[in-house]
Amino acid sequence: MPVSHKGPTQEPHVPGHRGALQRVRATVGAYLGLTKTRIIEQLLVVTVPAMFLAQRGRVGGGMPDVWLILATLVGGALAAASAHALNCVVDADIDAVMKRTSRRPLAKGQVPPRNALIFGLALGVISSVWLGLTTNWLAAALSVAAIAFYVLVYTMLLKRRTSQNIVWGGAAGCMPVVIGWAAVTGDVGWPAWVMFGIIFFWTPPHFWALAMRYREDYASAGVPMLPVVATAAQVSFRIVVYSWVMVAATLALLPVTSWIYAAIAVLGGAWFLYSAHRLHAGVARGVEPQPMKLFHLSNMYLCGLFAAIAVDAAIGLPVLFH
């Protein structure tokens, strides 16, 4: 009798408990999906090297304080998450049309737009206050500027109106290096703006390669990305031009780095330029373009370049030019 009594009293609660747990997981997963965590990882990758280089220029050099690095990364992640969540709110109609973005939470109706808006704004407030209290208020102000630029200028003003959207809108993605530098020094030195420029000129080749692959997606959504309004040859030519300017920008850091960074910048830059020219030559010959090869290479290139900055600064070898 005791056994038969336990059965009916316990079993109904198990599925209910599991169902509630699954709903919680789904909700958490949906809100995390709004933040585009994979993009945040890339933004944080460039923040730490900027902090290392900033510390190298200070009296005593060495490495930045570990707590300062963690505080900056947390604040930067929250700021990026805020910008991405607000971007999802504004672009919900586009995301629902495009195959590449159709699985995002708002496009699938997993999160109410009002909740997503409050979530994004709350993250922005938390990130700015956190950075202000744990690093300095310049870094906090720069994070607010980055969020505002990404949402108001890129997402709301440029994205649906001009093929130059990613050129100027990409400036928001350059801000992590400036924020990282400011967190260490309390100001923004010229090497921070050079790193800003590297990412600024890297962004169009990186994103245009992706947009070439998903051209029909952007066209169906009415977004005038360059591959939608220009020929493949015109796009690949501009990729080559921006790639050359980007590589030239990387050389501007030579006065504050050693041969370690110089070697990676030159070799990595040559590899990137070869790949960009190869894409353009293939398009000119009428060969089916494979832009995703350049897209994936661009990710590896940027990570490798900034890893070289961090290693170079951490080792502290004599700079090339005094």
Annotation keywords:
mainly alpha, disordered N terminus, single chain, Farnesyl Diphosphate Synthase, 322 residues, 0% strand
What can you see in these coordinates?
- The structure is a single chain.
- With 322 residues, this protein is mainly α.
- It has a single domain, classed as Farnesyl Diphosphate Synthase (Orthogonal Bundle), CATH 1.10.600.
- Helix 4 runs antiparallel to helix 6, helix 6 packs antiparallel against helix 7 and helix 13 runs antiparallel to helix 14.
- It is globular, with a radius of gyration of 23 Å.
- The N terminus is likely disordered.
Note the topology.
Elements: H1 2-10, H2 13-34, H3 37-56, H4 66-90, H5 92-97, H6 113-134, H7 137-158, H8 165-169, H9 175-185, H10 190-213, H11 215-221, H12 226-229, H13 232-251, H14 259-284, H15 291-315
Helix pairs in contact: 3-4, 3-9, 3-15, 4-6, 4-7, 4-9, 6-7, 7-9, 9-10, 10-13, 10-15, 13-14, 14-15
Q: Report the mean per-residue pLDDT as an integer.
A: 91
Q: H/E order of the elements?
A: HHHHHHHHHHHHHHH
Shape: globular
Secondary-structure arrangement, i.e. CATH architecture: Orthogonal Bundle
Fraction of helical residues: over 70%
CATH topology: Farnesyl Diphosphate Synthase
Number of strands: 0
Derived from helix and strand composition plus strand pairing, the structural class reads mainly alpha
**Gap between N and C termini:** 89 Å
Number of helices: 15
**Strand percent estimate:** under 5%
Rg measurement, Å: 23 Å
